[in-house]
Amino acid sequence: MPVLLGISIAVFLMMHMVPGDPAKMMLGELAVNKEAVENLRHQLGLDDPIAVQYWRFLTRALHGDLGRSVLENQPVARMLWQVLPSTIELTLTGLGIAVFLGVLLGVTAAVRHRTWLDNASMVVALWGVSMPTFWMGLLLIFLFSLKLGWLPATGQGGLLRLLMPAFTLGYVAAAVIARLVRSSMLEVLRQEYVRTARAKGLADRLVIYRHAFKNALIPVVTVLGLQFGALLGGTVVIETIFSRPGVGRLAVTSILNKDFLVTQGTVLMSAVFYTLVNIIVDFSYAFLDPRIRYD
Hints:
Blueprint: H1 2-17, H2 22-27, H3 34-44, H4 50-62, H5 76-111, H6 116-130, H7 133-147, H8 159-189, H9 192-199, H10 204-215, H11 217-241, H12 247-256, H13 260-288
Helix pairs in contact: 1-13, 5-6, 5-8, 5-11, 5-13, 6-8, 7-8, 7-11, 8-11, 9-10, 11-12, 11-13, 12-13
């Protein structure tokens, strides 16, 4: 709750940190009309003391009221709920790709330590860490859409339109996960209980996936929670490049159109989701390691 309260304060202060008068910026050319500016300031509650404004913002947000878009003239919450499923679909698919590729590369590199497979896996991971997401997205569009014609470049709807943006979003996270899985697995594989399991004659597959892999997951799950936030933030770039409707693209559009209430809503929703996911990650530790308990 203190984190969520701090988030609400930070999001609320966004409008007051903008240089100049937000009402004049929203009105643009119409700002020369002082009556229109005063009406908009009164409509947004900007003529009240800042403490009163924050309390009104907080109480309305707790009831799901994030204000009304000045340009679209509809509730911000409704606009967010309309595009949220697309962003969740993209984020979860990207996270799934990241986990699959990251675990596969990391375990392969750890099990085949100091071999060409180890080096190849880390080169792939290094490429993902070094490649900007917007550049990778453009390369994928150029190759698979313009040159090969296998996948549609933009839009939403169906698995084919989801593959490229999800892979672009998840590949960077996969590189981070792969490096962490490799280091965690190497540390666990050196433990005494792993040597004991092998001395008892257990197959390597059982030793790796039943004994070593689960114990190496705690730092990986921690990074997954952090990467979820990175993926959620990455949708701003990906949805813009691939012309997908979503929270990220809505945020970009609202910033360009100076619709600050919509911008506040997108940031607040993203921050709340990020916080909730990390709470779930904290509680998952007890499942992965029975020695961890929350009293």
